[in-house]
Structures are given as C-alpha cells and as structure tokens.
Write a structure and sequence with these properties.
Blueprint lengths: L9 H4 L17 E4 L3 E6 L2 E10 H12 L2 E4 L6 E10 H8 L4 E6 L9 E7 L20 H9 L2 H12 L3 H13 L3 H12 L5 H8 L8 H11 L2 H24 L1
Parallel strand pairs: 4-7
Antiparallel strand pairs: 1-2, 2-3, 3-5, 6-7
Helix pairs in contact: 5-6, 7-10
Length: about 260
Amino acid sequence: MALKASHLTFFLVMAGQALAAAEPAPSTKGAQVGSEAMQIHVDHGRLTVKLEGIPLETVLKEIGRRAGIEIAILGPLTKNTSMEFRDLPLAEGLRKLLRGFGWALLQAGSAPQSGALEKVIVVPGGERAGFDQGASGPKGERTLAQAVTALLEREQVKTLLDVYLHGSSARARRDAFRGLLGAVQLEDLELLIELLEDQSVQPAEWEAALAPLSGVIRTEERWFILRSLQSQVAREQMVKTLESHVTYKRRAEAKR
C-alpha cells in the first residue's frame, strides 16, 4: 500500500519524544481592566473575568498584557465570548476561555507545578490544516513527502509541533498534542486510524515518509518513531488514543 497525503496527520501526533529546558517565565502582575462588558482581574496567578459579547482575541491579549505572558494567535480569531468566573488559576481560566480551539500552554520548569505560565499558543478552529493545501497534484495522488513539506510550512503546525517535541513539561507537550489534533481535519484523523490498522504498510514506507521531518526530528527520535510504527502493540495503542479523540471531537461539534 503506497502512503498518500491523507496520512500526514500521523507525523503530527507521533513525533514528540524529546525533552528540553525552558527559559524562565516572566513574573505575574496583579491588575484590573474593564467596563461593564469586560472586567478582567489578574493577581498572583489567579484570574477573574466577567465578559459580555467581547471579542475573544481582545480578551486574550488583555490577559496576556496584564499577566506578563505572551499570547500567540495563529490565524483569525473572530469569536465573541460571554463568560464569568472568579479567582481561578490562570491556566485553568485560560482553558475555559479557549474551549473549542486548539491551544498549548507553556510553563517554565520540568513539572506543571514548578513554573509560571510563560506563553499561550492558540489555533483558531477556522484555521484547521488540511492535506490538500500547498502540495502539487490532486488530493490523494501527491507523495506523502510533498504533503508533509506543505503542511510544515503552516505556522500553526510548526509552532505546536516544536512545543510537542521540545516542551519542558509533560503538561505543555500534552497541550500541544491536543492543539495539533485540533488543527487538522476530523476525516484525516479517521484516515490515519485506517492506516495504522493496515498491516500491509512496510517499514521502508514509514522510513521514507519521515524524511521531510529530518529538520525537526533528531536521529534518536526518528529511531523511536520507526520502532513504534513497526510494533503492532504500539500501533494499537495509537489507534485507541486517536479513536478517543475523534469521539470527543464529534461530540464537541454536535453541541455547536
């Protein structure tokens, strides 16, 4: 079975096995801003908001400015939000605000409780990456290498993949993993599941398909991924993880 562009998602959800140190996060400052429609209070890592029809991008940027953290929004974010909560941990509050989007929260330190929040990456739902963007030839007939190269040109994918590969904490890598899955189309995740269940794919095909990621994946990571691809037990575990995420995404989309 020849690998095709529709199978590209695999390389976004399998490539993260490396750890690296993170830079220290900026200190959090207490501050409040707002009118009747937008009230935001940040103090010692705690967040309180009262919002009525405020653009989410405005809210996130204001929280970032007041908390001293970087907010990176990878694409148009047009949603307005109405929400109210009090005195939540900053990371928990941001997760509530970002429900329904791909995102990653980066903290300093090697454990979730050891470092302050330093950066938030947001992938708007309307900017999901598809396998038909950028590569030549009709969809399904391009080489996998062409599809990988095209998708890695998308800033949202490169940023989240870098966090997934090199995030300093398990929480940051887990958030980036969810962000990557949220950044691709549901049907492509289902195609990936079919591929992982296909016993006819040869090791050489997997190895060739990893070539476009050579600038991102180190030699030892590549070896680990290839070993996982050749293990039926590992593939079955990947399928379970992806099936769980597909079910979650279908339920979330049904509620919209």
